[in-house]
Amino acid sequence: MTTSHTHGTDRPPIADQVERALSELAEAGKLKAGRIVVIGCSTSEVQGARIGTSGAEEIAERIYEGVERVRSRIGFRPAWQCCEHLNRALVVPRELAEEKGWTIVSAVPVRKAGGSMAAYAYRHLDDPCLVEALQADAGIDIGETLIGMHLRPVAVPVRPSVPWIGEARLTMAYTRPKLIGGERAVYSLEERPGPASSGTCG
């Protein structure tokens, strides 16, 4: 395993880094109880190794702890993304999957197929299952695991004050509804329509 020292050694513990970043995402995206947040993480990258080569349960435990600190305050619902060997399926409570009508698939994530993070989450949730896909309200990606396939359109990037978790690059975003209608559209009750034009609706 190779470790980079380019980001300094005085950073806070991993759980604290995750808590800070996720708190910033929740504030930027105005996340509330019940919102879905997809979490992708390479524990190998956090250690400074190439993704998929050095998964570690102890790193997963710290990531999970940081997420739980924020989840317990806000009440969002995390979905833990597996690695490519399970087609980036997601670990969620079965109750949530059934409530949302998501397609449940059959597999149990392990370190070599699913990844250490998803495997850890699966073993620490009550009645977990895997779902094939979902559209989350926001997401956090630790180590460039590519969570975009599970985000609703349109994704709005958030620049974290802590751009690294351990040695892994951190990317995160929340989503917003599409703005439709063109130049005459109004997007809030307080806005006034623009000048009348030759075109009408209705």
UniProtKB/TrEMBL annotation:
It comes from Cohnella xylanilytica. InterPro entries: Antibiotic_NAT-like, DUF436. It comes from the Bacteria. This is UPF0340 protein H7B90_11775. Belongs to the UPF0340 family. Gene3D superfamilies: Hypothetical protein TT1679.
